[in-house]
């Protein structure tokens, strides 16, 4: 892995600040973007998290009395899901008496969400900025936690005249999907910087393998993408990071979220709680053991290396977990932001909507 990957990580770390480091540290901070006091019933079940390096919260009370089988829908080759993919090898599901079967849905997170809603899977992990619009349509899926931050990058060529978001006004940005979470996020970020992402920026769709050529030819000013696409571009040494969701206020928001079927929440809430905690444990493990996760992920990965996986995991915030009111607040902010860029209907009440799609399985 070339040094540009680690330079990117340094940029992200500096952007998120020292405060983020202290907030996101620790092995298993299952719920501690929120406090037990804000979650009725939680204090009786889980003790205060130990946020010191290597510390682990006692979550033994979440272990189910009887084995419980369920299907978890994921994109098994996605690097940000690597912590979940290797959770079986770390016995993080059996720790809670869960028998988890992975259902691999490839790259389509929309299909993944539909699978949960229609009973083809009991739960899954997807990107908040992809799922919120779909959940507005009334899928019978509840979100239970945010798993980590990171994933999204805006990249431009070295020595280009585009040195800030403001400089992209009137320019074209390349995307692979007009409804993608990266497009939604950078539309929000542009809007926050006074640029109308609908009328003052042109979004051009390209296949991922042609995106850098379009940038080199000057057809677009920047590329919007996620991992590992972004890291691989940066690793060529020809491009640099213009913006990401690991800087500013968004460094403290969840990128990916856990969704469980409404039926699982209604009929087997303890199982939903156990699964949620196991998944948060998996991401906490990755935060402190990225190299080990990178190595073990090779059993499932396509076209990557342990070094690339661990570098990407280190550039993300896998210790950031949000549940309870903290999670509702994060989703409220996203919904409000998506309204401003005309993705979610203006008639939706952001906080009420966030509360309606959240299930506090730990209460």
Automatic annotation (TrEMBL):
It comes from the Bacteria. Residues 1-33 form the signal peptide. InterPro entries: SsuA/THI5, TAT_signal. Gene3D superfamilies: Periplasmic binding protein-like II. The keyword Signal applies. This is ABC transporter substrate-binding protein. SUPFAM superfamilies: Periplasmic binding protein-like II. PANTHER family: ABC TRANSPORTER SUBSTRATE-BINDING PROTEIN (PTHR30024:SF21), ALIPHATIC SULFONATES-BINDING PROTEIN-RELATED (PTHR30024). Keywords: Signal.
